[in-house]
């Protein structure tokens, strides 16, 4: 029946699409931010990860004795270990001279700790002191480091009063906590951060022999080591970081609330449209009831109308969502993308929204008293 | 053979408490199968109320009403809905569905017949439109039809459900005299062919002669029964 009223149809579809876009955006941001918070974590070549129990997140990593990591070698299943230094540092923008905090990781250049095989050749350059690898996906506030480096210029900057030179570029990505990343050797790291004790590390990576069960080893190591370290699986390390942002900050809540708002707005619009539509056609519904049609048949008509709206409204929402994600990726460098789960979630939400509105609008049908039409 | 409609001592009130107003008072009426009965009377005398009660659109308050063998006192929603399928209704306004074509509107009536395929029901709808002389207007929307044509579509719709009783509330009210005459004649002829009883409410004195029997109503009472 809506087809005969193109304006109302357009309003309904616009409303549904708008709600869909809103949900796509909020959920996309939320997932994107959570995803981004673990870009570095994912790349670690490790089965188990040791951290200090005092660490709360990537922006507040506490140190623990390096000895503990070496102790894990006692377990027969452990194949290799890599100590990693992890801290926020103040990077001076080589162009504007402004300082800004950047996440610095220090590791042994002979022992690249990322799954990424690209790192090994680049890491060799770090064996010289005062050299860093700069994350070219860092925010532009750190200066045009990547562009200058590609032009062949010698890019030098300062971290905590120490001169550093960019010896290569890597691709990691920004997150909640870190607007940019840089990699350096343990030695340089300790030079840059003189307050850190040399025998202390922030993250210990443990690689296991192929075929071993990380959970079993995790349990053994937890029993073996004193409680000044926590043993996590790689997934546990990722969850540890995401949990922090999810539960200890309001970010997850805010975006979920945003999505809920989109849902409510959509509900109101669809309800309004369906309700007016049912009201306008009340005499016709009443006629059908007088002819002997069951109320359930008429309810079916409204449900189908809602379903159709959901289907047609979803298409523009999906397309606009894609476009929006592209735009957000460009603007914030956060890894926001359309995934199947989210596409399905939003569709379910739109579907529920249309059905709920149809359900509410149907109450109007009860008012269709067939005796009133004579 | 049982009467199509049997009413004994039917009374009906509107409103409640102090505002309660009696609209029907001890009405007795029988309509036999195939009979065409015209109901006349001044407006507000309860004709339409009587029609809605027979059409199972209102709950019977007091008295005995049996339509097509179904007693209506205390009949539930489901029973009344099933009974309505066997009663054709033609309204003062045509009450066609605005967004459906003439053919689809008639098919809404034919769709009430169970156990028939979609194609059979569509053919039935076309047949009825031809029977009311609208074979050339199958695909038109009610908007594009004249008043008489719309009322004829409504008749086709009512008859397509193959009712045993046809209730019509001033079907000629919105029509000029010659069209009104045509519509009523058509109604009577088709009802005859279907052996369908007709109860028609009308003010129109020009069509009284189609009736087998004329019933006059005043202030909620049936006054005369001629014929």
In words, what does this structure look like?
The complex is a heterodimer of chains A (374) and B (227). With 374 residues, chain A is α+β, with helices and mostly antiparallel strands. Helices cover 51% and strands 17% of the residues of chain A. Chain A is built from twelve helices and eleven strands. In chain A, the strands form two sheets. Chain A has a nine-stranded mixed beta sheet with strand order 6-7-5-8-4-3-10-1-11. The mean pLDDT of chain A is 83. Chain B is an alpha/beta fold and 227 residues long. In chain B, the strands form two sheets. Chain B has a six-stranded mixed beta sheet with strand order 6-7-8-3-9-10, sandwiched between helices. The longest helix of chain B has 18 residues, at 177-194. Classes of the chains: A alpha+beta (374), B alpha/beta (227). Chains A and B meet through helix 10 of A and helix 1 and helix 2 of B.
Q: What distance separates the N and C termini of chain B?
A: 20 Å
What would you call the quaternary organization? heterodimer
How much is the radius of gyration of chain A in Å?
29 Å
Mean pLDDT of chain B: 83
Q: Report the helical percentage of chain A.
A: 40-55%
Please tally the helical runs of chain A, counting DSSP H or I stretches of 4 or more residues.
12
Basic shape of chain A: elongated
Instruction: Please tally the β strands of chain A and state the result.
Output: 11
- Regions with little confidence, pLDDT below 50 for 5+ residues of chain A: none
How many E strands of chain B?
Answer: 10
- Note the beta-strand portion of chain B: 25-35%
Strand order in the sheet with the most strands of chain B: 6-7-8-3-9-10
Structural class by SSE content of chain A = alpha+beta
Question: Most extensive interface: pair and counts?
Answer: A-B, 20 and 26 residues
């Amino acid at each position: 029946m809506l087809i005969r009223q193109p304006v109302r149809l357009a309003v309904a579809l616009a409303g549904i699409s708008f709600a869909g876009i809103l949900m796509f955006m909020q959920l996309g941001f939320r997932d994107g931010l959570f995803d981004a918070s673990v870009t570095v974590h994912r790349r670690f070549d490790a089965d188990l990860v040791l951290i200090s129990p005092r660490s709360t997140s990537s922006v507040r990593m506490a140190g623990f004795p390096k000895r503990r990591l070496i102790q894990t070698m006692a377990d027969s299943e452990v194949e290799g270990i890599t100590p990693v230094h992890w801290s926020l540092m103040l990077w001076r923008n080589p162009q504007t001279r402004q300082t800004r905090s950047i996440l610095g990781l220090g590791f042994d250049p002979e022992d690249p700790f990322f799954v990424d095989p690209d790192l090994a050749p680049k890491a060799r350059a770090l064996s010289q002191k005062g050299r860093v690898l700069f994350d070219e996906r860092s925010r532009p506030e750190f200066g045009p480091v990547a562009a200058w480096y590609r032009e062949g210029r010698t890019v030098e900057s300062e971290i905590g009063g120490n001169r550093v030179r960019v010896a290569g570029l890597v691709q990691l990505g920004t997150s909640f906590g870190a607007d940019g990343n840089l990699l350096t050797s343990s030695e340089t790291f300790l030079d840059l951060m003189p307050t850190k004790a040399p025998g202390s590390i922030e993250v210990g990576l443990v690689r296991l022999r192929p075929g071993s069960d990380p959970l079993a080893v995790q349990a053994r190591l937890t029993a073996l080591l004193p409680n000044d370290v926590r043993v996590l699986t790689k997934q546990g390390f990722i969850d540890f970081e995401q949990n922090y942002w999810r539960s200890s900050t309001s970010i997850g809540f805010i975006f979920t609330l945003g999505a809920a708002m989109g849902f409510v707005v959509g509900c109101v619009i669809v309800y309004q449209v369906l309700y007016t539509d049912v009201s306008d056609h009340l005499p016709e519904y009443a006629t059908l009831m007088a002819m002997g049609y069951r109320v359930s048949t008429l309810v079916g008509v409204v449900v189908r109308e809602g379903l159709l709206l959901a289907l047609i409204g979803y298409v523009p929402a999906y397309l606009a969502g894609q476009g929006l994600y592209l735009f957000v990726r460009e603007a914030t460098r956060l890894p926001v993308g359309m995934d199947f789960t989210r596409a399905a979630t939003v569709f379910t939400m739109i579907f529920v929204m249309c059905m709920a509105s149809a359900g509410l609008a149907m109450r109007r049908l009860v008012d269709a008293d067939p005796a009133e039409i004579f | 053979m049982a009467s199509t409609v049997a009413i004994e001592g039917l009374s009906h009130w509107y409103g409640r408490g102090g505002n309660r107003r009696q609209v029907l008072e001890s009405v007795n009426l029988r309509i036999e199968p195939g009979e065409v009965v015209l109901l006349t009377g001044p407006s507000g005398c309860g004709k339409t109320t009587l029609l809605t009660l027979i059409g199972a659109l209102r709950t019977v308050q007091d008295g005995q009403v049996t339509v097509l063998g179904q007693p209506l006192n205390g009949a539930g929603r489901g029973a009344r809905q099933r009974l309505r399928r066997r009663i054709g209704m033609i309204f003062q306004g045509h009450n066609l569905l605005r967004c459906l074509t003439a053919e689809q509107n008639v098919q809404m009536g034919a769709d009430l017949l169970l156990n028939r395929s979609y194609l059979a029901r569509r053919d039935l709808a076309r047949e009825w439109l031809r029977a009311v002389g609208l074979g050339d207007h199958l695909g038109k929307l009610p908007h594009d039809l004249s008043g008489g044509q719309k009322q004829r579509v409504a008749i086709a719709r009512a008859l397509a459900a193959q009712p045993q009783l046809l209730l019509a509330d001033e079907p000629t009210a919105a029509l000029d005299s010659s069209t009104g005459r045509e519509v009523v004649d058509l109604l009577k002829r088709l009802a005859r062919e279907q052996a369908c009883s007709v109860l028609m409410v009308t003010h129109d004195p020009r069509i009284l002669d189609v009736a087998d029997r004329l019933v006059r109503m005043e202030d909620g009472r049936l006054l005369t029964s001629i014929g």
